[in-house]
Amino acid sequence: MGRLIVIEGLDGAGKRTLADGLVAELDRRGHSVARAAFPRYGADVHADLVAEALRGAHGDLADSVYGMAVLYALDRHGAVEALHTDLRQHDVVLLDRYVASNAAYGAARLHQSAEGDFVAWASELEIERFALPRPDLHILLQVPTALAESRAEQRERSDTERRRDRFETDSSLQQRCAEVYTELAESGWWSPWRVVDGAEHVDFAELAAVSVGEVTYW
């Protein structure tokens, strides 16, 4: 059975770049890797409803923290079988966002901490009720909010298909989300966490060794 590794972080933190580097290092070491990203835009109707709502469709849906969170969760629920298949067939399954994204953004929207009601609700829904596979490791790519925002703006200018949505352009929401992410990591929420400084050079050799369990998490 393979190991489930999740990369979390703010929009613009550089999660895709980190994933690319980690996959290259794991491949160099001879490990087979499957990767996926949530939400699964274009592949799941719930994810597409999220994207549409964030750009003004479906009335006041985007204003409902719990309504949007259910759509994000249903997208992941629809991927459970595929995740289990990938875990049977590969050494590592690498995900760009997972349940912690739902927990962090929902709590941030409600001005709650990681110990608040929303994170507990998200845990009950996705972890208990939907029985999503438990990660072996969360990697939190931590960058200053201003840097993440700058990178997201640059990405938007260079790639018109990656236009930012209403969450991504809300600086105060992003800052609160960063704080919740830090709290989740410090508490070891659901699984071990490894915090990576996204403003510094990433040691992909060390991160790959941690991902496959060759060294300890901390």
From TrEMBL:
Residues 150-170 are annotated as: Disordered. Residues 7-190 form the Thymidylate kinase-like domain. Its EC number is 2.7.4.9. It holds the Pfam family Thymidylate_kin. It comes from the Bacteria. The keyword Kinase applies. It catalyses: dTMP + ATP = dTDP + ADP. Keywords: ATP-binding, Kinase, Nucleotide biosynthesis, Nucleotide-binding, Transferase. Residues 150-169 have a biased composition (Basic and acidic residues). GO terms for biological process: dTDP biosynthetic process; dTTP biosynthetic process; dUDP biosynthetic process. Phosphorylation of dTMP to form dTDP in both de novo and salvage pathways of dTTP synthesis. This is Thymidylate kinase. The lineage of its organism: Bacteria, Bacillati, Actinomycetota, Actinomycetes, Actinopolysporales.
